[in-house]
């Protein structure tokens, strides 16, 4: 999407002309690709989906009808967020105007992705960060690390051939491979913590 188109959409969203805003949402709905494609939009929608998304000011927050109708009619999802509940602050009025919405295909393909609201720096809006795949952690909370010695072992090639097949979800594939690799490491090299304790007791 070119800069001119982006600017036009942004101006329409912020336009006081109700007819222009309605035409834009109707056009977006007409060009929605549906659940046959991966579809996701992130940014400043300048609209609320619930009264809880506004705090402060004389006028209470309410669902923006055009945006709400677009979400309801297309079946897209507002994925939610982590950290601060509001993304915009002006003159003591807090609102959640920035968000990510996606269709079902995107949700199934990236089931573990999430949106984080970062701290405001200069602008009155918080930046958004999309994380498609969280860092894998072991049961004890330490990050998973690939050990160079594994590829030197003669059985490692057969292990990868057996456990490295894609199962339809990249996150699940990596998570399953990681768990299997941890077990394989224990079987081949033994439990490192146990070996350290055993060596210390002999010292």
Low-pLDDT segments, ≥5 res: none
Instruction: Summarize the helix and strand pattern as letters.
Output: HHEEHEEEEHEEHHH
Oligomer: single chain
CATH evolutionary superfamily of the largest domain:
Endonuclease/exonuclease/phosphatase
Strand order of the largest sheet: 1-6-3
Write down the Rg.
Answer: 24 Å
GO molecular function: catalytic activity
Protein name: Endonuclease/exonuclease/phosphatase domain-containing protein
Domain Endonuclease/exonuclease/phosphatase: 12-100
Organism: Gossypium hirsutum (Upland cotton)
How would you sum up this structure in a few lines?
The chain is built from seven helices and eight strands, in the order ααββαββββαββααα. The chain is of the alpha+beta class and 203 residues long.
Quickly list its features.
alpha+beta; Deoxyribonuclease I, Chain A; 2 domains; three-stranded antiparallel beta sheet; Endonuclease/exonuclease/phosphatase domain-containing protein; catalytic activity; Endo/exonu/phosph_ase_sf; Endo/exonuclease/phosphatase
């Amino acid at each position: 999407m070119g800069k001119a188109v982006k600017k036009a959409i942004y101006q329409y969203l912020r336009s006081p002309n109700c007819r222009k805003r309605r035409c834009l949402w109707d056009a977006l709905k007409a060009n929605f690709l549906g659940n046959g494609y991966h579809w996701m939009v992130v940014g400043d929608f300048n609209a609320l989906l619930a009264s809880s998304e506004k705090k402060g000011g004389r006028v209470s927050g309410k669902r923006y009808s055009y945006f709400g109708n677009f979400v309801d009619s297309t079946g897209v999802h507002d994925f939610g967020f982590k950290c601060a509940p509001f993304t915009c602050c002006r003159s003591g009025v807090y609102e959640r105007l920035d968000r990510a919405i996606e269709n079902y295909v995107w949700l199934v393909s990236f089931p573990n992705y999430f949106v984080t609201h970062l701290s405001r720096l200069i602008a009155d809006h918080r930046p958004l960060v999309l994380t498609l795949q969280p860092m894998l952690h072991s049961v004890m909370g330490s990050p998973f690390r690939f050990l160079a010695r594994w590829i030197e072992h003669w059985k490692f090639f057969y292990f990868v051939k057996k456990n490295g097949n894609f199962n339809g979800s990249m996150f699940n594939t990596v998570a399953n491979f990681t768990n299997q690799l941890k077990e394989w490491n224990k079987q081949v090299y033994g439990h490192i913590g146990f070996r350290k304790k055993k060596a210390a007791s002999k010292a």
